[in-house]
Every structure is written in C-alpha cells, then in structure tokens.
Amino acid sequence: MKKGIAGQVFIYIIALFLVAFIMIYGYKAIKTLTTKTDQITFLKFKTDLESAVGSISSDYGSVERKTFFIGDKYKKACFVTSYQSFYTDSASLSAITEPVIRDSVKSEVEDNAFLVMATVEDSFNAGDIEVNNIYHFLCIDVIAGNVKIQLEGKGDHAVISTW
Fold it and tell me: In the prediction, which pLDDT does 110 show?
C-alpha cells in the first residue's frame, strides 16, 4: 500500500514539472512571437512610408491621403523637415517636445521620422520630406494603431501634414 502512494506522489511531481515546463516554454514562445510581430509592423510601416514619399515626391501637385498601420505599441509618429537641410533655428528646436528628436536634429542625424511610445523608440529616414508648419516639426497621434498622413508631391520632395 505504501509503494502505491509513493508511486502516485512521484507521478504527481513529474506531472507538476511537466506542466511548469510547458507553461514557461509557452510564455517564452508567445513573448518572442509578440516581439517579432512588433518588428514586422515597424518594418512594414517604414517601407510603406518610404515608398509613398518616394512615389509622390516626383508628382508635383498631387495629394494623397494615406492611413498607415503601426500597431498599438506607439502613441505618436513625429516628422521633421529634412528637405534641403534640417531646421536648427531656436524657434524650431524649442517646438520639438521630444528631447531625443531635438538632439537628433541638432546633431543633423539623417533620421526624419520618429515613432514615440513614452519616449522615442524607433527612427528612420523616410526620404526628402517637408513638414507644412512654421516649426518644421509635426507629431501625429496614433489612433487605433493607425496614423493618417497627407502627402503632397513637390517635384523633388513630399510635404507631410495631418488630415
């Protein structure tokens, strides 16, 4: 009788370890999948925006309104004028609320598109863009994982604004 109880305890312990292993492995697999999904979403947004800016830049006067999916991870998409040069005058720099973007503009890093959570998480060069305001800086809120951008072709660059 005691051997039967000891055997059952042993089986319960093995089952407990097996369940714990499956739970830990499943958690890690889901976390990895989520990370890869975020990376893919960022890369798709980046290539879609670069493609849209590149295609409309040469089409003078045409206007396109685009909705880009960037996921719920980001809160804002920010853009800085980079056509011809970055604007580093004091009024433009003081309008930039994100310190990382301000430092990027000051140091003339070529990135002109920034994705913001609590702070800037990702940045890239979207091509020759101009922001259509006096500060040459624009942040657009992400709503339901989407950002809505209006692009206007100017022959050799694109003007970005909200719509």
Answer: 86
pTM: 0.78
Q: Diameter of the chain by CA atoms?
A: 90
Per DSSP, the residues of 74-98 read -SEEEEE--SSS---SHHHHHH---
How far is 138 from 22, CA to CA, in rounded Å?
47
| 109's tokens | 């890093």
Strands 158-161 and 129-131: parallel
Residue 49 lies in a domain: yes
Give the type of residue at 26: G
- Residue pointed to by tokens 């830049």: 57
Average pLDDT over residues 104-120: 86
Q: What is the pLDDT of residues 18-68, one digit of tens each?
A: 999 999 999 999 999 988 988 999 999 999 999 999 999 998 989 999 999
Q: Answer whether 138's CB lies under 8 Å from 79's CB.
A: yes
Least Cα distance to 136 among 163, 102, 107, 103 occurs for 102
Give me the number of domains the chain comprises: 1
- 91 inside domain: yes
For position 7, what pLDDT does the model report? 73
Q: Which amino acid is at 128?
A: D
